[in-house]
Amino acid sequence: MSSSIFRDRGRSMGDSKRHDNITMPIYPIESLPSPFADPAPNLSDSELRETAYEILIGSCRTSGSRPLTYISQSERAENAAAAVPVGGTSLQRSLSSATASKVKKALGMKSASTKKRSGGESVSQGQDQGGARKMGTVGELVRVQMRVSEQMDSRIRRAFLRIASAQLGRRFESIVLPLELLQQLKSSDFPSLQEYEAWQRRNLKLLEAGLLLHPHLPLDKRDSASQKLKQIIRGALERPMETGKPNASMQALRDAVLALACRSSGGAASEMCHWADGFPFNLSVYQMLLEACFDVNEETTVIEEVDEVLELTKKTWVILGLNQMMHNLCFLWVLFHRYVSTGLVESDLLFAANNLMEEVEKDAKETKDPVYSKILRSTLSSILDWAEQRLLAYRDSFHSDNIELMQNVISLAVLAAKTLGDTDEYHRNRKDVNVARSRIDSYIRSSLSTAFSQKMEKLSSSRKSSKKQQDPLPLLSILAEQVSEMAFSEKAMFSPIMKRWHTLASGVAVATLHSCYRNELKQFVSAVSELTPDAIQVLRAADELEKNLVQIAVEDAVDSEDGGKSIIQEMPPYEAEAVIANLVKSWIETRVDRLKEWVDRNLQQEVWNPLANKERFAPSVVEVLRTVDETLEAFFLLPIPMHPVLLPELLIGLDRCLQNYISKTKSGCGSRSTFIPTLPALTRCSTGSKFHGVFRKKDKSHITERRKSQAGTTNGDSFGIPQLCVRINTLQHMRMQLDILEKRTIAQLRNSESTHVDAIASGMGKRFELSAAACVEGIQQLSEATAYKVVFQNLSHVLWDGLYVGDVPSSRIEPFLQELEQYLEVISSTVHHRIRTRVITDIMKASFEGFLLVLLAGGPSRTFVLQDSEILVEDFKFLTDLFWSNGDGLPADLIDKLSSTVKSILPLYQTDSESIIERFKSIILENSGSVAKSRLPVPPTSGHWNPTETNTLLRVLCHRHDETAAKFLKKTYDFPKKL
Q1: Closest to 789 in 3D by CA, of 681, 666, 701, 702
Q2: What are all long-range contacts of 219-222, with beta carbons under 8 Å and residues at least 24 apart?
């Protein structure tokens, strides 16, 4: 890492830019380790650069048609046009800016206008400071680009002239350059002794690197030449040796060097010297040559003359043991490394590296050279590691300002991964693996997971730092909104780029976000035990998020092979609505259970006091209905989207509680059968006296005591008549309020969200239907129970025990009517006006039934003669008149309808016994046939009294006080005279 975290871009971003770059932030400068490894621990970049320049000059001098001569810099400056070329025609070719660079075009780089270059700036320290001047030749350009001073250049050329004279006719690749330079240059060729000694050490280190550390062929440990060379170099590095003239030390050095450099794989001596073609030493030297392609004054710019420079560098391949494939690989690294090391500011470099990567991919398929494969893996692994550091969290690396670069980075990574995979035997045999798709898939999942974690961490930190200012929204609710925004931005910005390699890029992204949020939601839901505003807020936000994510996935999968099935399978539903529904159900269950407990507890304390309020219904029903209303209101205030779906469950629970209240309200109040007396056995009357029977000796004063009215009793009996009226009123009040609750529920349902008119119209049927029906049924039961309790229990002393007992004229209906009227007054003033008629009607029905029971089933204490019939008719008229009340009571037609049975039976009491007996026999024979001729059966008691019904006729005979009836009953059925 550079000591300066941020490099000053002022000059490189100024007027001398070759073309406009994409706007980018300033990135920290990165120092990537070389994939070629360290050529020598004690060789600096400047030393390698000088060596590279020497090899370049030496390689180019053998390519010219003219002999190499030396002309001083001053002479060349005075007469450049007449000068003899130094180093060959390629170096001395004139520069031309008219032709666009073919290399740049091939790499997809932008061309720039011709610029002025400074010939005396930004070069090595030994360079002349002569100011700016235009460079006219390729050689001059390369010298400046490689930071070689004119003095150094002159010394190198002087050395090559001496080498050429000493090695006349020998090609450059047949000599060991450092050795020859040590031989030809003396200390007098250098400005100072220190510079000379540094130069000597450099050449010795080059020999060490090229022949000992990184030899072209592996060294034999027993090779004496290598041991000898080590000793010489070690000694010379400690104490400078005398070079520049023949001597024993130089001869020893030459012998050891040539013995190592001229080896061949077959063991015989080689005409070619191998001193600079061992890996990675050769690549490190070549990298310095390729660095000359970048403007020395503008490090991010590839010079327009790159074609000429690369043409020269190719001449070094024979010395460095390189070829086109190695060149492509090395140039790829140089372009890529320059892009990274200069702070990612020049996108052209990345674009060029990406295009060159395609060539490297082709090269890798065409060779199995182990050395090349090793360098390839090292280089591409470095590039892939760098790219994946950005792509595995690409949302941190790319944004709207630099999104165009993302495609190049992805392409670089995918090509590197694919090429590395092709060189691996395991991956090469797996034809089913789509490297590009697999890589993109991992980038998307990693980046979105990282982004999600960052969002989560930021929200948590923000929430912790602002504890005093509580955010009204729960964390996961905010997170859901942010994740949704992330999904849409992913779809808009990143997925279109990813789709080039992965058709379901958006789907993978949203599936990843879906999974990340699902993990957080799962933990949240597991901790939720009851319905709270936060829980609903989070779950609704989760539901909204899921809808957005699924929608993106579906849209992304329209054209995919499986229709997006694989992605959708990765997104198991949050079932947020189901969780909300379960929480609401639990809420409903709690409310309903609470109401049920309240009903049970308060009904045990209810006294049904008619004076509790002016409406004369139980206070408990007010509380029950208020609780129901509050529960419904609370339900509709829940911020949930499924009120219509869950309302039936709530209504069923509330309905059940109300039914429980209704059931307990009428419980224990009895019914018709509770108060109807048991019918005594059939007997016959005595002809001697009308007072035969069990009631003949009954003390009249005892009967009188029981006639005391109990109509207004409020002595705490919760089943007294006033209390029964309160119970009836209570159910009537509930019935009316249920209609109001139903209308209010429908209105609230209309106002709730996610509700349609059709859903309301069809709805769930009538609300509180069972409770309403139970109210109707309960009112009927209580009304009937009240009526029969009044008639058969409270008034039994004047009806069952007193009416027509003994002598009919002396025990008529007036006492019963007097007390009944008192009850009717109490009931009329207590019962709700809407059901008052029903209750009084039931009392009338019970009275009529009681009157008939006295006549037909009153036992042996009641006997009638024909003369009594007028009294019976008159008494019954008094009874009906009580309910008609001169037109202020019940309707006449209703009275007529309900009194029809009594009126049909009363004429029997005016009919003589013989006629009744004949009618009785006739009907029996008609119904039973020949079976009845031998013995008439006793007809069963049906309770449905009718003048044509045999049991009714038989009972009239049983109560008939005459000899004909008595004989018939004795002879036919042997009925007793008393019980």
Answers
A1: 666
A2: 219/260
Per-residue tokens: 835: 């059901």
pLDDT-derived band at 431, boundaries 50, 70, 90 = low
Best CA proximity match to 114, nearest among 128, 126, 129, 99: 99
Within a 10 A sphere around the Cβ of 913, how many other Cβ atoms? Answer: 20
How many whole angstroms separate alpha carbon 666 and alpha carbon 789? 14
User: In this structure, how many other beta carbons lie within 10 angstroms of the beta carbon of residue 144?
Assistant: 25
Under 8 Å between Cβ of 251 and 205: no
Residue 274 exposed, middle or buried by CB count within 10 Å (0-12, 13-18, 19+): buried
CA distance 814 to 439: 107
CA distance 375 to 281: 12
DSSP H/E element including 510: helix 505-527
Q: Is 644 helix (H, G, I), strand (E, B) or coil?
A: helix
Backbone angles phi, psi at 79, to 5 degrees: -140, 65
Considering the entire predicted model, what is its pTM?
Answer: 0.71
Contact (CB, 8 A) for 521 and 543: no
CA 817/CA 650 separation, integer angstroms: 50
Residue range 628-637, pLDDT digits in tens = 999 999 998 8
Q: Which amino acid is at 604?
A: Q
In this structure, are residues 391 and 443 in contact, taking their beta carbons and an 8 Å threshold?
yes
Q: Per the omega criterion (within 30 degrees of 0), is the bond before 280 cis?
A: yes
DSSP string, 91-107: HHPBP-SSSPPHHHHHH
* Other Cβ atoms closer than 10 A to 196: 19
Residue 763, beta-bridge partner list: 765
**Cα–Cα distance, 378 to 359 (Å, whole number):** 17
Q: Burial code of 719-745, b = ≥16 C-beta within 10 A, e = fewer?
A: ebbbbbbbbbbbbbbbbebbeebbeeb
Q: Buried b / exposed e across 614-626, counting CB within 10 Å, b at 16+?
A: eebbbebbbebbe
Give me the half-sphere count of Cα atoms (radius 13 Å) on the Cβ side of residue 64.
Answer: 19
User: What is the average pLDDT score of the chain?
Assistant: 83
Q: What is the 3-state secondary structure (H, E, C) of 612-635?
A: CCCCCCCHHHHHHHHHHHHHHHHH
For the chain, how are helix, strand and coil distributed in percent, rounded to 5? Answer: 65, 0, 35
pLDDT, tens digit, for every residue of 475-486? 999 999 999 999
List, in sequence order, every residue forming a beta bridge with 349; answer none if it has no partner.
Answer: none
Task: Take residue 627 and report the two structure tokens written for it.
Answer: 């609780």
